[in-house]
Write a structure and sequence with these properties.
The chain is α+β, with helices and mostly antiparallel strands. The protein has five helices and seven strands; from the N terminus they run H-H-E-H-E-E-H-E-E-H-E-E. It has helices at about 1-15, 20-50, 65-80, 100-115, 175-185, and strands spanning about 60, 85-90, 95-100, 125-130, 135-140, 190-195, 200-210. The strands form two sheets. It has a five-stranded mixed sheet. Strands 1-3 form a two-stranded antiparallel sheet. Bound molecules: adenosine-5'-diphosphate and magnesium ion.
């Protein structure tokens, strides 16, 4: 797969020499290749968690930084999809004890869903708050939400709740299942509710334990 993607990228650089049809084909190879790569990575992550082999590095860090990273990576996708992306982060650090890379991965999953399953020209919000020892990240959108009958199937691997039959919105059906396993392995929780007012939409949230004690990023204040 690395070779397929690598050579397709080389071809992409030769655009000036390719016909319009050829360069459209190169784009198809790249698109399908990236989709397959995401699928493979998610399947490998899920299987390593289920085999009890997932290694997590739990350490204290400012959750706002991890969320800013996820937002930076998502904002071009939101822009391309015509979705307004807004973030509300507190002015002071929210230090959690978790695996930073995995937290970014979970935030990316929720943000990409809020963009994909939104209404045309809709908005998505990411909010960070704190309650009783937990930090809560909530991602909401203005899409149709999740039908009550389908809600129990959320977080089930490969279940796209019927979206696989609708053209256009691509996915593997693994993002939420993986996010749930990751968050729970970090001693947190993940959940969902539908919004009704002022507009329809879904809110997906996850909680992570707030770090208690002094050291942050290995630094220890005297
Ligand atoms: N914000 C959302 N609004 C409505 N439906 C959603 C939302 N997020 C997820 N879903 C539903 O849950 C399913 C599973 O989500 P996910 O595991 O991220 O897989 P994928 O996005 O690859 O389909 C999606 O296919 C979709 O039907
Ligand atoms: Mg998804």
């Amino acid at each position: 797969l690395s070779a397929i993607l690598g050579f397709a990228q080389l071809l992409e650089l030769e655009q000036a020499e390719l016909s319009a049809r050829q360069s459209a084909s190169v784009q198809q190879i790249l698109k399908a290749g990236r989709h397959l790569l995401a699928l493979i990575n998610e399947v490998l992550d899920i299987s390593s968690i289920e085999a009890g082999r997932m290694e997590l590095w739990l350490e204290p860090f400012d959750l706002r930084d991890a969320l800013r990273e996820a937002l930076d990576l998502t904002s071009p996708i939101a822009e391309a999809a015509g979705i307004r992306l807004e973030a509300e982060l507190p002015a002071t650090p929210v230090v959690v004890r978790a695996d930073r890379r995995r937290v970014v991965q979970v935030a990316l999953n929720l943000l990409s869903n809020a963009i994909k399953y939104n209404r045309p020209n809709g908005a998505a919000w990411l909010r960070l708050g704190e309650t009783e020892g937990f930090a809560r990240v909530a991602v909401s959108d203005e899409g149709n939400g999740v039908a009550d009958a389908a809600a129990p199937r959320l977080f089930t691997p490969f279940d796209r709740l019927g979206r696989e039959r609708a053209a256009g919105v691509e996915g593997t059906g693994l993002g939420l299942a993986l996010s749930k396993r990751l968050v729970e392995a970090m001693h947190g929780a993940i959940g969902f509710e539908n919004r009704t007012a002022p507009a329809r939409g879904a809110v997906f949230w996850f909680d992570l334990p707030v770090h208690v004690g002094a050291p942050v990023n290995g630094r220890q204040d005297p």
